[in-house]
Amino acid sequence: MAMAVVTGAVVMLAGPSPAHASESHTIDGSTYSTGGKFYLSATWRYKDGASNVRLLFTRLPRYSSGAVDGLRWRFYFGSSDGYSSKYLIDDEDSSVSTKYMSDGTAFKNSFARVTTCKDDCSHYFAGYEAY
Amino acid sequence: MHSTENRFWRIGLAGTALLALMTVAACASSGQAAANWLSGTQASAEYRDEARGLTLAPGWDWPADLDYPDKVDGDDIAYEKNTGRIDAGLYWYCSWALTYVEADTDADRTTALRQVLRLRETKYYQIGVATDNIPMFDAALDSAGDDDTKLRRLIGITCSDIKESKSNDDS
């Protein structure tokens, strides 16, 4: 119930504009059952080109009924700059434009499911992050 | 309104769906659950344990207060295992990297560079950097002896936060 992992290993070219070389990276993991409890990934990522980071999820956490719950997502920039605002993602297969970052910006991902769901719920998510 | 854009995203979907599913399946072994995430206190303990084996550049000290709160903006937060070890490795590397950039003498610069080139020995490099960013690190390290342009750019990217924090602490 409390397992959560974010991986990002596969690189694909996918970007909103050829002018920005942002690459799309697979991400997946699982949240706590407690809504609003954030995980902070240990992985540092570095922005390639200046643009908004985009997220697209093919799978979001779900209720026991199978209905989609959402994710709250934010970025961490280190102790000096702290966290971004929170982004709500509650629609599968729709890309979401999030934080604008300049080339080389260092960041980590942080995420939580929206609603507490303890019985027969899916906490998994999977998708892509273009940065 | 997303149809055109989604075609871009979906280009790679079929090709990577299997791998993604395999990854999710691998992550789904519940035995890893509790051990993979830490409280702020546990992340700080990791950091200090890792720091004990690392020697900072002259004039540098380990941060007195580590920044692993258990709540951010009112929300509970947990840290992925190895966060503290990775961040300690980053701090160690940046102590030497910023010393390298700011060295006044060739001797100091040479000494610092020797330590910077040990970056690959750190948890930060080994497990704390996104896989797709590793080529940027390798290119900088591999060319540093002949031309340090890429290394200086890497240092600028990776150590800006620590440089800013240290400036604030020193002032």
Poorly predicted runs of chain A are 1-5, 7-20
Q: Whole-Å distance between the termini of chain A?
A: 29 Å
What is the radius of gyration of chain A? 14 Å
Q: State the oligomer.
A: heterodimer
**What does the overall shape of chain A look like?**
globular
Notes on the protein architecture:
By secondary structure, chain A is an all-beta fold. Chain A has a single domain (4-12, 22-130), classed as Sandwich (Jelly Rolls). Chain A is built from no helices and 10 strands. Chain A has strands at residues 11-13, 23-30, 38-40, 45-46, 51-59, 71-76, 87-89, 96-101, 106-113, 124-130. The radius of gyration of chain A is 14 Å and the shape is globular. Chain B is mainly alpha-helical and 171 residues long. Chain B is built from 9 helices and 3 strands, in the order H-H-E-H-E-E-H-H-H-H-H-H. Chain B has helices at 3-11, 13-27, 40-51, 83-102, 106-116, 123-127, 134-143, 149-158, 160-170; strands at residues 37-38, 71-72, 75-80. In chain B, helix 4 runs antiparallel to helix 5 (106-116) and helix 7 (134-143) packs across helix 8. The chains are: A mainly beta (131), B mainly alpha (171). Chains A and B meet through strand 1, strand 2, strand 3, strand 4 and strand 9 of A and helix 1, helix 2, strand 3, helix 4 and helix 8 of B. Strand 3 of chain A pairs parallel with strand 3 of chain B.
Secondary structure blueprint with pairings:
The complex is a heterodimer of chains A (131) and B (171).
Chain A: E1 11-13, E2 23-30, E3 38-40, E4 45-46, E5 51-59, E6 71-76, E7 87-89, E8 96-101, E9 106-113, E10 124-130
Antiparallel strand pairs in A: 1-2, 2-10, 3-9, 4-9, 5-8, 5-10, 6-7, 6-9
Chain B: H1 3-11, H2 13-27, E1 37-38, H3 40-51, E2 71-72, E3 75-80, H4 83-102, H5 106-116, H6 123-127, H7 134-143, H8 149-158, H9 160-170
Antiparallel strand pairs in B: 1-3, 2-3
Helix pairs in contact in B: 3-4, 4-5, 7-8
